[in-house]
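Throughout this chapter, every protein is written as a compact record of paired, labelled lines. An example of such a record is reproduced below:
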Amino acid sequence: MPVRVRSLLRGVASACLAATLSLAVGGAAFARGEAVACPDVAPVMGLALPHLKAAIAHNVQAVIVAFGSSSTQGWMASDAAHTYPAVLQRLLSRALPATHLAVINRGIGGQDAAEELARLDQDVIALRPQLVIWQVGANGALEGIDPALFKRLVVAGIRRMQGAGIDVVLMDNQRAPRILASREHLLMEHSLAEIASVTGSGMFARSALMDAWQAAGRPYAEFIAADKLHQNDLGYRCVAEALARAIVAGLGSGEMVSTH
């Protein structure tokens, strides 16, 4: 394994240990967030993950990169342990105890397709992951990016990752007031679904997920932070639970264990 990847994985392990110790001592905010169960409803999101599945089958270090903007970095989470990649790491480690697995957070707030494409080689491909979860389109929707340009950029990024032997799963936008107020948010959703279809990448639709939650009586606002844009601890955790279930199902590895 390359030295840089080993170093990064040691850092991830240290961060996970710190997060575990933090969870052990607890805190009022954490206790409140963990006391609320995630909705027991999610649309079916079939994910084909041949490269990740092969790595696990051959007992190779499994590396997942969470790539994106502030929703990946974890803005408005109470701390790093409550970001969706950190929760996903814990859930997958619990569900796949025989697998040595790392989820590496490569989210940078304020970015979208153009900026993320510019750092794709260094921040993603150099880590040699088997799976990348690319959360993209929120800032594009807020800033009114040209849809044709958005599609070209995202398709180019996916093709580069697929050429490097990486499974790609796209993640679309959360149902937050500031996203919903954008004239482009539905276009972003449709564009990402079309890109997934054209490229053969996976699609994890937060939009459809949160619609299902609301239809089940859990309003969008329950999962959104005070800034009316990002998710709160509960939102990040419930997204991670649904994503972990989709990944485990894609691996054919049985039923996902929830945080409760």
The chain has one domain: 43-249. The two ends are 35 Å apart (CA to CA). The CA atoms of residues 155 and 195 lie 7 Å apart. The longest strand covers residues 62-68.
